Amino acid sequence: MAKKDTGMFYMGNDNLPNRNWQGEYTSEKVKALKKAQRNILYFAENFFYIVNLDAGREKISLYPAQKKALRAMRDNRFYILLASRQIGKALALDTPILTPTGWTTMGELKTGDQLYGSDGKPCNITYAHPIDYNRECFKITFDNGEKIIASKEHEWFTQSVNERLKGIEGSNKTTADIYNTLYKSGKNNTEPNHRIPSCINGVDGVYTDLPISPYVLGLWLGDGSAESGVITVGERDIQQITENLESDSQFDKIVTNKYSSAYSVRVTVNEGVKTKSLSTLIRKYNIYKNKHIPKQYLYAAREQRLELLKGLIDSDGYINKSGVAQYYSTSKQLSADVYELITSLGYKVTRNSHIPTHKGKECKRCYTLTFKPNEYVCTLEFKTSRIQLKEKDVKSNLRSQWHYIKNIEPTDTVPVRCITVDSADSLFLAGKQCIPTHNSTLMTIYLLWQACFQKDQRILLVANKEATAIEIFSRVRMAYEELPNWLKPPVKEYAKTSMTLENGSRIGITTTTGTAARGQSVNCLVIDEMAFIEPHLVDEFWKSVFPIISSSKKSKAFVCSTANGTQNLFYRLYNGAETEENGWAYGKIMWNEVPGRDEKWAASTKQTIGSDEAWRQEFCCEWINSGESSIDDALYEMMERQVCEPMVTLDDGCYKVWEEAQEGRIYAAGVDTAEGVGKDSSIIQMLDITDPAEVRQVAVYRNNKISPMEFSNKVYKILRNYGSPLALVERNNCGAQVVDRLAYDMAYPKLVSYGNKAAHRKKRMQGMIAHTNTKHRGVINMRYWMNDLKSIVMRDEETLEELRNFVRYPNGTWKARHGCHDDLVMALMYGYYVLDNEICEQYFEIIEKDDTGRPKIIEPLDFGVSLFEDPTSIYTDNEVTGGSPDLNPVYWGMSNGEEDMGDDYYDLIDQGFTPL
Question: Hey, what domains does the chain have and what are their CATH numbers?
């Protein structure tokens, strides 16, 4: 056996032998080493561990499709793998998640939503995975009492005791791995083995114009009268509190009165025309006799939340001699709000409650919050003098900066889901204590096997982001450290982004935007999720690197990705492999080749996605073509047969009506506004959505020369034609004029406001806010109803042609082909948005849902009177037939009948018109 000697190990880590390492090789070890060198499956199933753990380690378990892929990598120079989207590492649907707009749950999150990364900064959800109903689940309890339910496979970035002692920052571990190594090794040792770093600075929040100064609100919540704006201040603190108030620009008048040993303080704010007391403000904002922290304060910018905490600690807080802060309150609601506030600032908080006694009598229950601040969380000098200021460091050993996993226990299976985020480290914050939790990445068996058993290999791992590449490489490092020392070649260099072994092999990482690979000699190139790397980046990278690979007879390249359209390098390589045009070997892993996926799982996944197209691409490995029309030939032919001339054409041909409004029918309007300078058109699409399975296009308005101001009048009149239905009016750019005129000048009652959250608006705005996320969601929604259900009854030929030229671009977005317009399509998309569940549930009672959970039968809620106006009464018609019940029909400006006026004239006479 090898003797532990720091001279034999790299940086003193006994899992990293260097060239001086000496070990005893038995015949069994030599036999195993040779077998591992020859057989990658033997190596993986006997020596490859998922994480670096102290005990109870779990070797990876390969399923048949993975074994097949590993053999193909071993046996081929160039191999490309098309894989179904992998199983997500999931949390229970009711897990609280903090977002820039407030708390939500794991189950409510959607692709495109924002939440917070482990650094406290907003990040985007790039994919919200389907809900899974059949996972083995565990309940994780942290040392502060927080409880989170997660699947067996969910990953956490933890630091074990052994990693702590070796100076290793930590590693990714599954819930099952942590369950098997919950406590420190040793007999009867119940000290937690795993800890997770806290979000040291808390979340950024969003700067907000707050009605009451945060510090003053904190003072009032602590020591203010619930029935007035009076704040009681002790004699010791009155001078400093007064100075604090006087320095606050919001208040221009402070009145203090002394009563016994305390002072009462009143403040008044100057709002220009009027002056308002604090008493008036607390009534206005619903905290009169109702002490709590309003939500807008809890989600405000960090500096604003810190000022609020200072007021609370100055009034109802205490700092002991050790620098530990405590906050006391007899209000359960207020204590819960303060708990959330302190947590959002990055502190680990413990909660307790007790019933104090005074002179032998029980008092009201008191709630206590305890935390260890490392910054000033108060202003009073006798309290600030006790705070121990320290630089915030994620590597700190302060117990208060870590969440310790106290217990894990199996629990009943509950619905769970995973999300993929674009934070730098792929971490996001979950739970009321904002505990960082992780997403999965690809396994890296082949990289390690190649480096260990082949000399002088230059292996390059490529990802679209540096953080992703580092994360994948960290798995290689962990797996290497877990190999027995007698099996692995010694370490020569060992860093965060590369490692070099004594056998001459080196593993490094780069991104497609980097230049690290330019001019390098590369024996093995591995590219992760190639289909999701921007084409212009990966194509340039490929042109510079692949010639180096192909020039060598032994160099290899391995590419893996989920399908993502056809306008990318991944598709071209895979298609060339299938047609045997490029010499690449290829493989495919379908959804049903992954253990645990059956027809029941497939049905629930398809229902969650709500799109047959998304299911086919992401799980069935089908290519959904970029550059192709949003409608296929069969659907186009069906809609082409439905196209017909309008019943009425008005307003110089701009307004076409196929069906007049009918009482009892449900209508919705989508409105897209242009500048009116002869280029893009201002559009109104009127849809009859009474039966969502048969949405009827009943009227269209199109004009490219009408100003936004005048267009708002047209919108109002046409909406009145159809009983003032729900209207989704796009408010971007000049559309804001139309929305605001409808909302404020015309008091139109049924404007849908949507998209504020997706566009990260600080203040809610009327109308439909067009944003990358809302457009993507809207197009997916429209394509479901049109393509999957074929629900549309299309009447307008121009709309149909725009749909034909509405195509998917390589980056996944949908818009008109170059040189074409998509104004009619966008307005149609806004009209269809009414059937999106999030909007539909606000305005309709959903009587029945279809198999995907979308509305099947709807009834409008009582949200306004339907007033119908005859469209022919508000326009100068150029094609209206029929008489009026009040006036005789008249044909103006014609001859006295002595000369031949032509067929049109006599047709009018026959219809009852009278020449003047």
Answer: 6-84+451-589 (3.40.50.300), 91-199+402-437 (2.170.16.10), 214-384 (3.10.28.10), 633-858 (3.30.420.240), 881-916 (no CATH)
